[in-house]
Amino acid sequence: MIRKLSIDLISQYGDDAGTIAMMKAAEYASMLDNENWMLWEKVIAMIEELNNARSLDS
Asked: Cα(42)–Cα(13) distance, rounded to whole angstroms?
């Protein structure tokens, strides 16, 4: 689920995917919704991992 969400964000937003995920994480953090906040923190980490892997491939 986290990987698919991350890939979808990268496909839709490109280099801005990490920023979008950070905004979602901040939104849930401000509402004290820890479950969704942690989900989006994992998405941020996955986006970084995927972007790093992509840069190593080129």
From this structure: 18
For 1-58, write each residue's pLDDT tens digit: 999 999 999 999 999 999 999 999 999 999 999 999 999 999 999 999 999 987 766 5
> Which region holds residue 53: left if phi is over 0, alpha if psi is between -120 and 50, else beta?
alpha
The burial of 40, by beta-carbon neighbours within 10 Å (0-12 exposed, 13-18 middle, 19 or more buried), is given as buried
Location of structure tokens 């820890």: 34
